[in-house]
Amino acid sequence: MKKRRAFTLIETMIVIIVIGILAGSLMLVMGSGRDKAEATRIVQDMKTLTRAALMAYASTNEWPSERQDLKSYIDAPLCNTDHVCYSPEINEVGLYITGTLGNRITSGVRKKLARYASETGLLYINNGSASLYSEQGSVSVLVKKFPSDGDPGAVFSVSFDDLGDLGLFTKLSGGKDWYIDQGTLVTPDNSAQRYGFGESDWKDYAISVTVDLQIGNGYGIYYRADGAPDITGYIFQYDPGLGDRFVVRKVMDGREQSPFQSVRMSDVMGDGFQVKNTPHDIRVEVTGDQHAIYVDDVEVLNFQDDTFQEGSGGLRKWGSGTTVFDDVEVEML
Fold first, then answer.
1. Are residues 56 and 142 in the same domain?
2. Could you report how far apart the first and last alpha carbons of the chain are, in Å?
3. What residues have CB less than 8 Å from 224, skipping those under 6 apart?
4. Residue 330 and residue 201 in contact, taking contact as beta carbons nearer than 8 Å
5. Alpha carbon 328 to chain centroid distance?
6. pTM exceeding the 0.70 threshold for the entire prediction
7. Are residues 147 and 159 in the same domain?
8. Does the CA dihedral 40-164-236-309 come out positive or negative?
9. Which residues of 233-246 are buried (b: 16+ CB within 10 A; e: fewer)?
10. C-alpha angle 70/71/75, rounded to 5°?
């Protein structure tokens, strides 16, 4: 009979070490996954509370200044001292939602939040001064920026001079997040994306925005839209796929309809008009059922339609290319 060979002590120790390494790696992965989930939940909570703050203002015509001012608009507790306590904060710059992080928020969660800061506008507020969140202190997001005269009821105006300005926009769909660079809002070049801004009860207003299509195949500006991920509303677009035309479409549950207003770009802007690598000022005015759209102060479209009566604004880019947006302003008409 053959004698069975047993494991040597060295072989047994090697097996134990390998199992230990694998177990440790698994624990690291699981811990990282929990940290990411917790950080993502905090970001989503702050976005939800941003919408609640806008709803509170629409109902009362006053910006919320205390936690209790938001309770009627959110079906969830706003404070867990061990995890996060959320509250609105107002200073001379604007209105913020601030999350005070409790002792159960790990350093891993804080690191994830710091990593998300530049893409989501997460801030650290210290004595009224805002900087990108960096693993310490409370985390905040900008809800409403007040103009220099301190009037909190003024129109929407964002120049992207502050990294926190990105907090005024809500990502509706797409891949990588947009980011602020050198005073502009820059879109990555790898996927179609939609970002919304503003308030759902806007009716008669003008959206002005500077657009620089650097690489790619077009851009769009939503207006009188519902701000949902499957967005519904109007969109003005530059669309080279239709023969270099400016068009307006209706969007229903994220599906763009065929253009119902269209004009060849060269017919209104001239043959020498350079659409790419040149910033252009777009202005979309809507009053009642009357729509007027301008490019560099030239009226390119003027028509009537009453499909959508109110709604917020938004920005869109095509699936490839880079579009740079700047100086987004809304004026009530």
1. yes
2. 99
3. 202, 233, 234, 286, 308, 309, 310, 311
4. no
5. 13
6. no
7. no
8. positive
9. bbbbbbbbebeebb
10. 115
Other beta carbons within 10 angstroms of residue 121's beta carbon come to 26
The predicted-structure confidence for 290-314, as pLDDT tens digits, reads as follows 999 999 999 999 999 999 999 999 9
Whether residue 176 lies inside any domain: the answer is: yes
Helices (H) and strands (E) in the chain, counts: 3, 21
Q: Which residues contact 48 (CB under 8 A, 6 or more apart)?
A: 74
76 within domain boundaries:
yes
- What residue type is 301 in one-letter code? L
Same domain, 124 and 238: no
Return the bridge partners of 293, or none.
284, 301
Cβ 247 vs Cβ 257: under 8 Å: no
Structure tokens at 107: 């350093």
Helices 9-60 and 107-120, interaxial angle, to 10°? 50
Q: Is 243 helix (H, G, I), strand (E, B) or coil?
A: coil
Q: Which of 132, 154, 176 delimits the end of a domain?
A: 154
**pLDDT per residue as tens digits for the range 252-279:** 999 999 999 999 999 999 988 888 889 9
> What is the C-alpha separation between 319 and 70, in angstroms, rounded?
37
Work out the average pLDDT over 171-199: 83
- Give φ, ψ of 291 to 5 degrees: -120, 135
Q: Please, are residues 262 and 178 in contact by the beta-carbon 8 Å criterion?
A: no
